[in-house]
Structure formats: C-alpha cells, structure tokens
Design brief:
With 397 residues, the protein is α/β, with parallel strands linked by helices. 35% of the residues lie in helices and 23% in strands. The chain contains 13 helices and 13 strands. Strands 1, 2, 3, 4, 5, 6, 12 and 13 form an eight-stranded mixed β-sheet that branches. A hairpin with a 2-residue loop joins strand 2 and strand 3. The radius of gyration is 20 Å and the shape is globular. Keywords: ATP-binding, Carbohydrate metabolism, Kinase, Nucleotide-binding, Transferase.
C-alpha cells in the first residue's frame, strides 16, 4: 500500500509530508520511503494560528476559520506529495492535523483537539483519509501521546542495551525500548516551545526561532533561572505523561523571570536550551538509556545537540537517519504507518507507552471520491520494522 503521511507539530511552522510503500510480511512491517517535503504555512495562516493558541482567548469563529484553512493547507501539501513523491498514484493519506489544545488535568488527559478538516484532503486527492488519530487512545484512558512510540518500538526492538528515540519538536518526547520489559514513552518537557516563544518576544517579532542556535551559543546559562524552570512539577510526574504549549508558553517564561535581575536575551536563550538538554538527559538516565536516536526540528540546532551530548557523555546520540528514518520526516512517516495499521484493523498504540487500558485502533476515516474499500483485516500485529534497501529520493521542498 502506498501511503502519504502529513504532520505539523507543536512548532506549527510547516506541514511535513512523507510518502512510503508499506507492506506486512508476517510480523515484519516493511517500509520503503519514497521521499518527503516540507510546506511552510502561509504567513497569514500562521499568524492566525499563533494568535489563537493558548493562553490567548479565542472564538468559535476563529476556530472554524482555522479548521478550514489548515485543512486546505494540508490538502495542498497532500496534493504536492501525491504528484512529486508518488507519481500521482497512492492508496491512502494519513493526516495528523494541527494540535491547538491538549487538555490535561492532574496528569490525566481529558481531550485533545487537532484542526484541519480531512474532507479538504479527500477532495483534493480523491483518496481516503485517516485523521483524528489521538482520540481513541484518550477514550481508552491513555495520554494520546506520544503516538510515535509504536514506530519507535518497531524500529528499535532487538537492539542491544536500552535504545531510545528522541523527537525534538515544540515538545520533546522520548521512547525507551528495553530488551526485557515493555516500552515506555512520554513527553520530557519543552524543546522548541519556550525557545521559539522567547525569540519572537525578545526580537519584537523580527525572528521566529534561534537559527543554528547562534544566540544561545553566544549566551551564558543563568543558574537561578534554570533552577526555577526545573522546579516545575511536570518533571517529577511518572511516565506515561504528556504536555504541550498549554503549559509551556510565553507567559510561563515571563512568570519565571519575575523577581530575577534583568537578563541578557542571549542568556535567556542559552538557559532555555540547557533546560531542554537537562530534562532530556534526566529522563534518559532515569530509564538507563544506552543509545539515543534523535529526530525533529531541534536536531538542526547544533547548540542544543551539543548540550544534550554534554549532559549524556556516555550515551551515543545519532540522528534517526542511521536507522533509515530521515530525521526531518520521521513523524510524517510514523503517521503514515499508523494509518496503514488502522485500515488493516491493527492497533497503533502501546498501552505501556500511553497508559491506556488497551491498545486502540486509531483514527477516523473520510472516504475519497470512489467507494471506500478497506483491506482485509490482519490479525498478526508487526513486531519489527524493516527498511527496504532501495535508496530514498528527496525532491526539493
């Protein structure tokens, strides 16, 4: 089956699209990536999205406009992926949509909201669309995140020691795959969420992120601010757990700065970068991680990656490219796999990874232009992921 995966994370700067041929061979899921591209959000849409995200107040009108405009943007990205990556031939689109709220109270996830109407994607491509992938896990008592744990586990299972996969988006999440116990997955805390908010604020909107970590690299970590930030109760909660920009946002940072002497902008950014490195490293040490494979936008920040290495001097840190999963496209590929599992009647979650009572089949299906024909259900769930030997092709994004 040829599947297109669509993803926009908590950094909400672009839509990532990845295509792959996916097959099941007994208990092995075989993945042949066909390429990936990244489509930036139109500036007006991104501005509206940023203005609507918590803790800002919003209206039903704004949410409806966003739902439609994000759906149309995802549809345009899917149409490009279909033409440029798939030669206009695919079977399924899987859309994560754009998370705008993850409702957590006392560590329990009560609900989640991803915008981007799948009907726009189905209309643009003519293909069936799997969407709303988090809700089934939440209804089963899970966190609904991080859903990439299933794919991480398939990719890492059987490696020696205790391998782990780290994704550095707006929020950082970790999947730990021990040899002799169940996998564990959780959000470790902010990655780019506070950094991007700080850069936008400190630059008066002139910049959206710390390019190549230059400003953090020029700054000095402020120990007092770091202690305040690390005192957050979230870090002491047991896994599985999840969080988002509902918690880690600009007012949160400004509140942490209150009462401290004025800090240079670059020192604030250096401290926030160190915060991510420390919280990731603390989580890795707590679970005995012996090797770490990283993906996501944060891997393009050399200062952040250097700091993670400093905090974990005895743990090799490599990009997921070494596993055959392009670090810039891993999440989009992961959602393509989750949608593939869904249409075959297979669960896409691990209860030990989300805390759910059972493993849930994920998502809702929006038919394409033709009759909806699902594959015959499969009863044997995959245990390992195998990447095909064919070379990937990476068209310009």
């Amino acid at each position: 089956m040829r599947v297109i995966g669509l993803m926009s994370g908590t950094s909400h700067d672009a839509i990532d699209a990845a295509a792959a041929d996916i097959t099941l061979d007994a208990d092995t899921l075989v993945l042949r990536p066909l390429g990936h591209l990244s489509v930036p959000y139109p500036p007006a849409l991104r501005d509206l999205l940023v203005a609507t995200l918590p803790p800002a107040p919003t209206t039903a009108h704004a949410v409806t406009v966003l739902d439609t405009m994000i759906g149309q943007a995802f549809a345009a990205a899917a149409r490009r992926a279909l033409a440029e990556l798939c030669d206009d031939s695919a079977d399924l689109v899987v859309s994560h949509g754009q998370t705008v709220y993850h409702w957590v109270e006392d560590g329990e996830v009560r609900g989640t909201l991803q915008l981007g109407r799948p009907a726009w994607i189905a209309e643009a491509t003519g293909l069936p669309v799997v969407s709303d992938l988090r809700s089934s896990d939440i209804a089963a008592g899970g966190q609904g995140a991080p859903l990439v744990a299933m794919v991480d586990t398939l990719a890492l299972r059987g490696r020696p020691g205790t391998p782990a996969a780290l994704n550095l988006g707006g929020i950082a999440n970790l999947t730990v795959v021990p040899n002799y116990s169940d996998p564990l997955a959780f959000d470790t805390g902010p990655a780019n969420a506070l950094l991007d908010a700080a850069v936008a604020h400190l630059s008066g909107g002139a910049a959206a992120y710390d390019e190549d970590g230059r400003r953090a690299g020029a700054g000095k970590v402020d120990d007092a601010l770091l202690r305040i930030l690390l005192d957050d109760d979230y870090y002491r909660r047991p896994a599985p757990k999840s969080t988002g920009k509902e918690h880690f946002h600009l007012p949160y940072l400004l509140g942490s700065l209150e009462g401290l002497p004025p800090l240079a902008a670059d020192d604030i950014l250096a401290t926030l970068t160190r915060l991510t490195a420390v919280t990731v490293a603390d989580a890795c040490r707590a679970h005995g991680v012996t090797e770490l494979f990283a993906s996501g936008g944060g891997t393009r920040n050399p200062v952040l990656m250097r700091m993670i290495g400093e905090e974990l001097p005895s743990v090799p840190v490599s990009p997921t490219d070494q596993l055959g999963l392009p670090s810039d496209a891993k999440e989009a590929l992961a959602f393509a796999i989750l949608g593939f599992l869904s249409v075959h009647g297979l669960p896409g979650t691990l209860p030990s990874g989300t805390g759910a009572r059972r493993a849930a089949v994920l998502g809702s299906i929006t038919p394409g232009r033709g009759p909806l024909r699902l594959p015959a259900p499969v009863t044997t769930a995959p245990r390992v992921l195998r990447l095909s030997d064919e070379r990937h092709r990476h068209p310009p994004g």
